[in-house]
User: What shape does this take?
Amino acid sequence: MARPRTITDEQIVDAAREVFLEHGFSATTAEIARRAGVSEGTLFKRFSSKEELFAETVGLNDYQHWHHEVTALIGQGDIRLNLERLAHLFLEAARRILPNLMLMWSRGHAPSVKAHAWRDPVAEDIRALSAYFEAETALGRLRSFDAEVIATALMGALSTYAHRELVRGPTIEGERFVRELLDVLWPGLEPPSIGKTVT
Assistant: This one.
């Protein structure tokens, strides 16, 4: 009969958060295990790598729940309203993640960390939104355009807004920012009117 766990994953994550906040990603798994009261072996049975534990600690694993919403919206409802909803979901997620992420990264990096070892959440956001645009275009609900370019532009604007809001406070109200941004982008995305051709 297997021994019951004496410490939960949540307790390990709480200990890891404390250590990452003190030392940034340079924190060792040995120190995290010591703080959690478990062996490093136990730590790696629960989390496959320090990168995975870091992602769980700052909330990156939960952050992308809005990607499921992107997929669920394909072919449904009004696309302009869908994009507004997705933009607000992204901003809500960014407000939860960015403070801890920026604080932890500011504590320093281990020299051995390679950029390619990290999941790139921005790239994943762009891929999810690009796939949405491509699916809606295939359904005839959007005109044909370079989905990756537009997804990159939209996510770039939203990411910049989220970072600026964190550093400077809300200089522009979020609802207004999303609405006015889409007012500019939407005319280039909506399908042509019947009888009109796209130039």
DSSP finds ten helices and no strands in the chain. Residues 79-106 form the longest helix (28 residues). Residues 194-199 have pLDDT under 50 and may be disordered. The CA atoms of residues 127 and 143 lie 18 Å apart.
